[in-house]
Amino acid sequence: MHLSQRITNVTGGGSDGWDLFNRARAMIARGIAVTELTIGEHDTPTHPSILEAMHTAALGGHTGYAAVPGTDELRATVAARVQAQTGIATTAANVMITPGGQAALFASHTAVCDAADVALYIDPYYATYPGTIRGVGAVPRAVPAHAANAFQPRAEDIDAAAAGAVSLLVNSPNNPTGVVYGADTLAGIAGVCQRHDLWLISDEVYDTQVWEGSHLSPRALPDMADRTLVVGSMSKSFAMTGSRCGWIVGPETAIDHLITLATHTTYGVPGYIQDATVFALARGDALERQVAAPFRRRRAIAQDILARQNSVALIPAQGAMYLMLDIRATGLTGEAFAEALLDTHHIAVMPGESFGAAAAGHVRVAMTIEDGAFASALAALCDFAEARAGQTA
Predict the structure, then answer these.
(1) Any idea what the Cα angle at residue 369 is, between residues 106 and 239, rounded to 5°?
(2) Considering the domain 5-45+286-388 in this protein, what is its CATH number?
(3) Cα separation of 145 and 185, whole Å?
(4) In this entry, which stretches build a coiled coil (predicted)?
(5) pLDDT of residue 237
(6) CATH 3.40.30.10 fits 64-283, yes or no
(7) What is the pLDDT of residue 284?
(8) Most CB contacts within 10 A, which of 74, 177, 220, 275?
(9) Torsion of the alpha carbons at 341, 345, 349 and 354, rounded to the nearest 10
(10) Omega of the bond prior to 351 within 30 degrees of 0, cis?
(11) Among candidate residues 118, 212, 131, the one with its CA nearest the CA of residue 174
(12) Where in the sequence of the chain do the CATH 3.90.1150.10 domains occur?
């Protein structure tokens, strides 16, 4: 039987970027101890008070069909949060609740892309981005952000790629680079979107993990609110990855159509999870800071370790739970370095090439294990790089 080209071409006929992660998990399944620095999964669980709120809501009967757009209370809560953060008027009518940020990315591209439309995204990128675009029938077109520019995308590069495109996907704080887009970068992005009449899809799921500077949502820039769809999520900010609760914020007309799409696809998010999300958001900044604190602390640990050697360079780690490390001094590709590190030290990191051509010669390290184990693994990575760099000197 024939399967659709849309579903069989999600990865474009190549790897989905998760080969090393899958190999590390297979080693663990065989009983081999592997230090995993691959995936953005907190090493602390969802806060017990959130789980208690979820439990109470479920026992209270909120286990049936929930409102497809999201409950009125949660939509209003998200709207108030976004308005407080950005200063842009936002109501419940601007919000749709989704089963996590990934579903929000898929729905957002479905909303703005017709079949065969070109959709832009920045390289390096989170591994699902091009597949998400292909999955809605659009054509992904990467715009490189270069290591020499600290992976800040340049307006002139986006402008050069924008002919015939209908949308642009950006992500700040950025996964995989840890870079936070500055005001000048975002102003340039906004200018390109306005000149080329592009929709901007802004993935802001790491907005509470900012170590340097501040997070700025491009929806808050002049004349951008009506052409921007913001993707948010509870996964990273509240360690609720498995709860699958996210949202899209955008113009009312777009949200109305997205609600129709959800009616025919996901049919909403369980009510007891939405109630727990309301509870979590009501806790405010204190709990968000608590969830983010281990990554801020491990970033400082990493900066200290990396300052004591010369073979691994740190891309400015301004936000998110990752470090992007330049290992080109070893003479290895990111893929070869990560494979050899896994083989020799049983330490798993993600090759930069998993996140696009612009990240070649780099590896991404997730700061997601206990401080001491993290420090030991990073020191071992640096020693491995020093030895390889010595061989190529």
Answers:
(1) 45
(2) 3.90.1150.10
(3) 11
(4) none
(5) 97
(6) no
(7) 82
(8) 177
(9) 30
(10) no
(11) 212
(12) 5-45+286-388
Residue-wise pLDDT tens digits, 159-185: 999 999 999 999 999 999 999 999 999
Alpha-helical (H) ranges within the chain are: 5-8, 19-29, 48-59, 72-86, 100-112, 129-135, 155-161, 183-196, 252-263, 271-283, 285-306, 334-345, 371-392
Q: Which residues, in sequence order, are bridge partners of residue 232?
A: 247
Q: Which two tokens stand for residue 7?
A: 């579903």
Q: What global pTM score does this model have? A: 0.97
Estimate to the nearest angstrom the gap between the alpha carbon of 225 and the chain centroid: 21
Q: Between the CA of residue 389 and those of 310, 376, 383, what are the distances in Å?
A: 9, 20, 10
Q: Where in the chain is the domain with CATH 3.40.640.10?
A: 64-283
Q: What pLDDT score was predicted for residue 15? A: 82
Q: In angstroms, rounded to a whole number, what is the distance separating the alpha carbons of residues 284 and 307? A: 35
Please say whether the beta carbons of 201 and 109 come within 8 A: yes
Task: For residue 316, give the amino acid letter.
Answer: P
Structure tokens at 208: 């509470």
What are the residues whose beta carbons fall under 8 Å from the beta carbon of 220, sequence distance 6 or more?
A: 86, 87, 88
Distance CA 83, CA 220 (A): 9
Cα–Cα distance measured from residue 85 to residue 83, given in angstroms and rounded to the nearest whole number: 5
**Omega of the bond leading into 173 within 30 degrees of 0 (cis):** yes
Of 169, 68, 56, 152, the residue nearest 111 (C-alpha): 169
pLDDT reported for residue 393: 56
Which one-letter amino acid corresponds to residue 34? V
Which strand ranges, in their side-by-side order, compose the sheet holding 228-233?
95-98, 246-249, 228-233, 199-203, 165-171, 118-123, 139-144
Kindly give the parts of the chain with pLDDT less than 70: 392-393
CA neighbor of 355 nearest in space, from 388, 308, 301, 315: 315
Enter the tokens of residue 55: 């439990």
Per-position DSSP letters for 252-302, written without gaps between them: HHHHHHHHHHHHTTT----HHHHHHHHHHHHHTHHHHHHHHHHHHHHHHHH
Quick one: pLDDT at residue 391? 80
Q: Which residues are within 8 A (CB) of 72 and not within 5 positions of it... i.e. 6 or more apart? A: 92
Cα–Cα distance, 253 to 251 (Å, whole number): 6
